[in-house]
Each structure stands twice: as structure tokens, then as C-alpha cells.
Amino acid sequence: MPDGGSGRPGPVSATRHDWTRDEVAALIALPFPELLFRAQTVHRARFDPTEVQISTLLSIKTGGCPEDCGYCSQSVHHESGLKASKLMQVEAVLAEARAAKAGGASRFCMGAAWRSPKDHDLEAVCAMIEGVKGLGLETCVTLGMLSGPQAGRLREAGLDYYNHNLDTSPEYYGSVITTRTYQDRLDTLSHVRDAGINVCCGGIIGLGESEDDQASLIATLACLPQHPESVPINLLVRVAGTRLEDAVPVDPISFVRIIAAARITMPASMVRLSAGRESMSDEAQALCFLAGANSIFYGPKLLTTPNAVERQDMRLLDRLGMVPMQIGGTAPAS
Ligand code: SAM
Ligand code: DTB
Ligand code: SF4
């Protein structure tokens, strides 16, 4: 898809895939008015700034994960008090998807606490994907590492998006997760891409990483051969019992700066203001929208932790004169 394919007004800058960490760091450090102006300019060239894409999350298989991600309530290496459960039945998942659609979601995202799916579990997830698509919703799943054939099977079932986050910089990754490598993540992302599934890939801010790590994460995402269609930027939800429960809270203005950098470097991607909204003020969220975020998770829960309250979300959008994006309203990334 050529740049500017959305047909929306405004100057369209060239999409680059050669960002350096230092260039991104310099962007993040711009005077705030300059940074937001640049992010707004890029955003308006391809998107209607009043529209927000709404996704709803469901944990279809919770807890008991063998990985040791330092932030995660679902790792067996943590004592978060979370009760592990088996893969949900298809009908129960579809009931949740119907409720999400009735609540205004255009995409339904299903997450499983696996290192990688077993083939028989993948078949059950394929049935969920087919059922959710049948309701007229876009589908996204996040199941851990995939082989090429597994990605192909998900595509065959009609999967629209696969979420697989890089989470942090390549340099800091080993301080957060030791049970897999950055290259493992990149390998799965290329299997997903090769299978023709849209990529949802982003990270977490607040893991104790440096500003250089934050710039490096954004530069890594922006240097992927094709930008992810969807870029979730999560603010760490500090879960008691996890290794990062006492991580230093992030300054909301610094968080807005990261959102702006994601918008500027990946101009055609949907940038999702993801986990962590519950702890943000309405004003900080409004700044994130001004910085180019145009997607949120909506609903009572994320995967295992509470989300921002729905009534307040709709009131915020209303106060800002913003509206939920309809299915198909997303511009493809390049
Ligand atoms: N197990 C799969 C995986 O790791 O890819 C899928 C589920 S995992 C929970 C999906 C993503 O949720 C992680 O990559 C991470 O970015 C995000 N996440 C998990 N716990 C989080 C937390 N406490 N705060 C913010 N984001 C979190
Ligand atoms: C993403 O980037 N964030 C979502 C989704 N993709 C799967 C998950 C957020 C999880 C927050 C912590 C929890 O609820 O367990
Ligand atoms: Fe497992 Fe995913 Fe949590 Fe890591 S983030 S512990 S892989 S569920």
C-alpha cells in the first residue's frame, strides 16, 4: 500500500525504516509543544484525529505460564495470587465477544498464558477465531511463540491480527525476561508476517529501563521490515508478587513523549494506548490522543488486571468530541 493510501488530507511524510536510537532519543527530547505539533501533523496526514479504534481483551487461558517475564501476573515464577485456569470453551468465549460488540468494540483480542501453543490447543483457538469473525468482529490473538505452520493455520482460520510484543529494547530484554531471547520474538513476528497476518507489536514503559532503552524499543519497532499495523504502548501495571511490583512510576509527560515518538516514526500504524490507563488521569490520556494514540482497550478487565472504567471512558471520549472507529476504518501500515 503506498503512503497516504487512506486518502485523508494533509502532507504525507515518507515512511522510514532506518531510524537510529539516537534519532528517536532526540525526537523524544524535543520541546513538548514541538513534539506534539510534529506528532499531530503526522497523525492528521493519515487519520481522522477524532476517531479511536476500540478493542476488547479476554484472557482465554489464564496463569500457569512457564516464562519468567518480570512484569507478568501469569508467570509461575511469581506469587501474584492469580488462580490458573484451563483454556475456555468456545461458547463461553463467543458470549464474551457478543458482549464486547454490544459495548462498541470493533476488535476482540484473545490472550493465552502460553510460552507457545500446543497444536491441539491451536485448533480450539481457530474455532474461537471463526466464531468471533462470524459475529462481525475483527480478531486478534496472543498465544506466545509460533512456528511458521502454526501461523499459517491461524491465517487459514481467518485471524486478522497477532499480538507479540518486543516489550523493551534488545539491550534491556535480558534484565526483564530470561526464558527466551529477543531473536525468538523476532522469529515469531516474521512467521506471522509471512503468513499474511497483520502484526500487533509494541512494548511496555516503566520496567526500569533507561530513556535510551525506550528510544531503542521505538527504533527497533520502526526498523522492522514492515511497520506493525498496530503498536500497543503499555504502561507497566505493577502487580503485587511480580519482580517489578516496586518499579518506579513513569512520569505521565514522559509517557506521552513515547506515544508521540511511536506516532512520528510509524506514521501509518494504529498506536494503542494499552495497559495502564486505569492509573492515568483523563488529562494524561487526552494528551496521549493529541500525541497520536488512536486505539484503546475498552472493557472492565485487561487480561488479569482491571481496566479503566468503561462509563468514564465513554464520558472522556464524549468530553473530547471523539468517537469510536468503525471496522475497516484503519489505515494499513507500511
Ligand atoms: N504469553 C503471550 C506473550 O507473552 O506474548 C501472550 C500474553 S502476554 C500477557 C501479552 C503482553 O501483555 C505482554 O507481551 C506484555 O507486553 C503485556 N503485559 C503483560 N503484563 C503486563 C503488565 N503487568 N503491565 C503492562 N503490560 C503487560
Ligand atoms: C498488549 O500489548 N497489552 C495487552 C494485550 N497486548 C494482550 C495485555 C495487557 C496486560 C496487562 C496486565 C494484565 O491484565 O494481566
Ligand atoms: Fe507468559 Fe506472556 Fe506473561 Fe510472559 S507475558 S509470563 S509469556 S503470559
UniProtKB/TrEMBL annotation:
Which residues are involved in binding [2Fe-2S] cluster? 109, 140, 200, 272
* EC number(s) reported in the record: 2.8.1.6
Key word Calcium present: no
Binding positions for [4Fe-4S] cluster per the UniProt entry? 65, 69, 72
The UniProt entry, under SUPFAM superfamilies, shows: Radical SAM enzymes (SSF102114)
The record places domain Radical SAM core at 50-277
Catalytic reactions on record? (4R,5S)-dethiobiotin + (sulfur carrier)-SH + 2 reduced [2Fe-2S]-[ferredoxin] + 2 S-adenosyl-L-methionine = (sulfur carrier)-H + biotin + 2 5'-deoxyadenosine + 2 L-methionine + 2 oxidized [2Fe-2S]-[ferredoxin]
Which cofactor does this sequence's record say it needs?
[2Fe-2S] cluster; [4Fe-4S] cluster
What are the BP-aspect GO terms? biotin biosynthetic process
Key words of the record: 2Fe-2S, 4Fe-4S, Biotin biosynthesis, Iron, Iron-sulfur, Metal-binding, S-adenosyl-L-methionine, Transferase
Co-factor binding comment: Binds 1 [2Fe-2S] cluster. The cluster is coordinated with 3 cysteines and 1 arginine. Binds 1 [4Fe-4S] cluster. The cluster is coordinated with 3 cysteines and an exchangeable S-adenosyl-L-methionine.
Q: In which pathway does it act?
A: Cofactor biosynthesis; biotin biosynthesis; biotin from 7,8-diaminononanoate: step 2/2
**Keyword match Phosphoprotein:** no
GO molecular function terms attached to this record = 2 iron, 2 sulfur cluster binding; 4 iron, 4 sulfur cluster binding; biotin synthase activity; iron ion binding
- Which EC class does it fall in? transferase
What protein family is recorded?
Answer: Belongs to the radical SAM superfamily. Biotin synthase family.
Question: Matching HAMAP family, A to Z?
Answer: BioB
* PANTHER family cross-referenced by the UniProt entry: BIOTIN SYNTHASE, BIOTIN SYNTHASE, MITOCHONDRIAL
Chain's role: Catalyzes the conversion of dethiobiotin (DTB) to biotin by the insertion of a sulfur atom into dethiobiotin via a radical-based mechanism.
Subunit relationships: Homodimer.
Tell me the protein's name: Biotin synthase
Its gene name is bioB
